[in-house]
Structures are given as structure tokens and as C-alpha cells.
Amino acid sequence: MAFLADSLARIKPSATVAVTDKARELKAAGRDVIGLGVGEPDFDTPENIKEAAIRAIREGKTKYTAVDGIPELKAAISAKFKRENNLDYKPDQISVGTGGKQVLFNALMATLNPGDEVIIPAPYWVSYPEIVSLAGATPVSVETTMESGFKLMAEALDRAITPQTKWLLLNSPSNPSGAAYTRAELKALTDVLLKHPHVWVLTDDMYEHLTYDDFVFTTPAEVEPALYERTLTLNGVSKAYCMTGWRIGYAAGPKFLIQAMAKLQSQSTTNPSSISQWAAVEALNGPQDFIPRNSAAFKERRDLVVSMLNQANGLTCPTPEGAFYVFPSCAGLLGKTTAGGRKIDSDEAFVTGLLEEEGVAVVHGSAFGLAPHFRISYATANDILEEACGRIQRFCANVR
Ligand SMILES: Cc1ncc(COP(=O)(O)O)c(C=O)c1O
Description:
Elements: H1 6-9, H2 15-28, E1 34-35, H3 47-58, H4 71-85, E2 94-97, H5 99-111, E3 117-122, H6 127-134, E4 138-143, H7 154-160, E5 165-171, H8 183-194, E6 200-204, H9 220-223, E7 231-236, E8 249-252, H10 255-266, H11 274-285, H12 290-310, E9 325-326, H13 347-358, E10 360-361, E11 363-364, E12 374-377, H14 382-397
Parallel strand pairs: 1-10, 3-4, 3-5, 5-6, 6-7
Antiparallel strand pairs: 2-8, 7-8, 9-12, 11-12
Helix pairs in contact: 3-11, 4-11, 5-6, 5-10, 7-8, 12-14
The protein binds pyridoxal-5'-phosphate.
The site of pyridoxal-5'-phosphate has 13 residues, from helix 5.
């Protein structure tokens, strides 16, 4: 439509939302469909957090707040960075927005000009390249491999940097691969960035608390203090505190950037919900003991899914360090035909066949910039996962 903005033509709708919609459609038509497409914990928000929100409503904390966060929440975030990441961020270096996504959006919109490049290791979260494109800049996808654990290697980063590079966008643990960088792996990347002083790093640490097998989480500004002045550290309460619907995310970085992000937010959504902000204060300052409990449940599910997928004909599924996703390869099935007579010529054809013939909804890897793979979100009950993986095994066994 000529009436619509040109900028809209540059972006694609979210593939993960499309899969979820398609699964919902089939279910509504009476089909037995298991959806493994959505990226959110199935656990409920803890009671103490809900109570804090109810208290905020009763106490009349229901008005506009400071644009980028109430002082109490900024103090709680500052304490979190000190406690968990050994990072010093003052309240005026912290920005709170309506979910991590808005904070990311603000940061990219506030810094990117046409011609600027943003390096995004693939597979990536679907929103990264789209927001970069919306800002008029150029996403530079750098493919990783299953053999490298889906991690960006120092040489590949070095090769991708040009005079136009503005940001490196890192995400560990990763959506969609679950890959998380060790301190040594991050150090190899930060060493490259030290050689290129014009490149900043935006690190999306949203899945920080969801790591398994004694993995030790770390973040670029902690690994390389010399990068502190050109790092934006993004995090939020959505995943770790089971608060996806509350819409609170935050970032910390240099004051001038935080001010620019607040300026943008002041002309769009103003403050995030006052009630959600009070809930987030309780999330960060209150008891943290449910986090390892949830992680243990996720680890059990990860192990179940990885084991069952590796027993499926033609699939290879590495064991990720974190998040609640696996990103198996379906390369072994390419060129073959499903029981329903569908030719599997791509990962997209694989996921379409799986949905149509076995009623399991997953997302094709090409949507995340790396084929031939698919993403499974295992943030769902064990018995459902077992049933879904059983169906995947049957689907693959019947491929000829
Ligand atoms: C890697 C990553 N970053 C950021 C977000 C956004 O989180 P929020 O729900 O707080 O906007 C998500 C959500 O799916 C994500 O997977």
C-alpha cells in the first residue's frame, strides 16, 4: 500500500509469532497440535512479586513515573549489577523500558544512521536485524556453525568489522541456540574489539540465570573493563522471573547514551507501567531461591529433549549451555520425502511437514539466519515434551 511508510517494507513480521498463530489456527480447527514455538517460561510469576504489584495498586502507585524508571527500581538494578556481575552502574547510567525489546529498540534507534553496520552472529533472535533495518542501518549477519557450538569466533568477528561497524550485538545464552560464551570465549572477542575502538558492544544478557551444568555466566564489561565505556549491558525480568507479560527490561551503559534513550522513550511510550516497575523492584530485591529451582527443571527438560532428538533419524542436536531452546540440524533429511509425500528441500519444508503431518509446531532455522536447523522451545511440561519428541521421532523415521 502506497499509504504505508517505506520503512515498514524493510522489515519482516516475526516468524515465531507466525508459527504460534498457525498452530493456534490448526488447534481451533480441531487438530491436535503441540506448540513448541513460544519463548516464555511456563512457570507462573512468584507470589511475592504479584503481591508487590497488588500493594502498589492499593497504595496508589498508579501515576506517571520518571520516564526511564523509578529511583527504587534503578537502585535495585544497580545493586543487581554489583551483586551478580561485579559491575558498577549508577542510577543515571540505567534505563528501564517496556520489556528488553523496547530498551534494545531505543538503543539502536538512538545510535544508528543509514550506512552504519551492526554485526549480528547467526543464528540470532529474529528482532535484531529487523530493528537495525528499521533504524535505516545494515545488519551484517555472521554465520556460526554447529561445530563451533554456534559461537562467533574471534577471526570471524575481526573479518566482519569495517569502518562502518557501530555495534557488535551479542546474546549469551542465545535465543535460538542456547549457546553461552565462557569467560575465555568472550575474552577472545573483547580482545578483537580492543583493536577497533570505534566498535561498541551491545550484550543481551536476558537469559543470564538460565544456564546449566555449573556453567559460569559472565558479560563483556566484566570480562574486559577497558570496554566499559563502549558497552551497553541489556537484561530484564521477563525470563528469569517468569514475568514476560509484565514488560520490564533494562540496560546500563554510558550516561550520554542512557539520556538519549530516555529522550526517545519520552516521545513514545513514556514510562513503563508503574505497577510492573514495583513488581520488578520486588523481583530483584526479594528472594531469589526459585531461580535455581526453575533452572533445575529446565535442565531436566533440556536433557530429555536433546536425548530424544538425537535418537531421531536424520537429526543432530547439540547440548546447549543455557536458555530454554535447542537448535538441532535437519541436514540429514534434506532431499528426502515425508510419509505425507512432502519433499524436504529446506528446514522450512521440514517444519511445515512436521506441523501438518504430526501436529508439532517448531520454528525453522532460516528465520534465525541459519539453515538447515529448527528451534524448539522446551519451556513446557515434561509429558508434553515427551509426546512432542515422540512425534518428531515418528515423523523422521517415516522420511524416505
Ligand atoms: C534474546 C532476547 N532478547 C530480548 C528479548 C525480549 O524480552 P522482553 O520480553 O523483556 O521484551 C527476548 C524475548 O524473547 C529474547 O529472546
